[in-house]
């Protein structure tokens, strides 16, 4: 429970997804966080998320004499305004199909560029309505380390048969730099260029699968990283592309660096 501008907020369910970590909320339980909130330059979106956890008005504050019905009506209007997207998209019914069938370009732009935090009881976000398919769309961060770390060391092991120590190290570093360039290019020229996507529902849906979902539901901890099942074919494509750019003896080690930087 925290206090903000004379109102009381229950942040219990939100603190585990708080971008700054739960410690900042735990350290201020029962305290007035108004000044702290503004000192840390929180965005309007953060203010909206905070509003969703409001449970009352602090007695004795300058807000205490506000008509309770008026406050309730205002809160309801804010919820309607902030969750207008729910009229089109039900997050529990598979968002991919709904993006494909229900959203035109303008609606899609509004949907992905309006970050959502599901705070209602039993709220859940499914990309696929079918539980089996939806399972493969979820990737906790530690799955990435568990799966790709052995791959990185395997490629280094292969490279050790082709290069001596110094070229091996330099090739690995080159791989780190290569992934930095790849990631920047993907975000700069593909993922964040949705405004230039033609008015085509298939292209919009592809964009949503690859990156739009991350913007639409940034607090979804199971979708902060790319699903392993989808990344495997891309892995082999990247190896092929690297073989067109670098000498064959360097490809394995450069790929090890690419994988290592990807995990970072």
UniProtKB/TrEMBL annotation:
Q: Which InterPro entries match?
A: Cyt_B5-like_heme/steroid-bd, Cyt_B5-like_heme/steroid_sf, Scs7
Superkingdom in the source lineage: Eukaryota
Its subcellular locations are: Endoplasmic reticulum membrane
Keyword 4Fe-4S, does the record have it?
no
Q: How does it sit in the membrane?
A: Multi-pass membrane protein
TM annotation in the entry: 163-182, 224-246
The alphabetized UniProt keywords are:
Endoplasmic reticulum, Lipid metabolism, Membrane, Oxidoreductase, Transmembrane, Transmembrane helix
Sample GO molecular function, one term: fatty acid 2-hydroxylase activity
Cytochrome b5 heme-binding domain segment(s)? 1-59
Q: Name one Pfam family in it.
A: Cyt-b5
GO CC, any one term: endoplasmic reticulum membrane
| GO terms (BP aspect) | fatty acid metabolic process
* Record's protein name: Cytochrome b5 heme-binding domain-containing protein
Species assigned in the record: Euplotes harpa
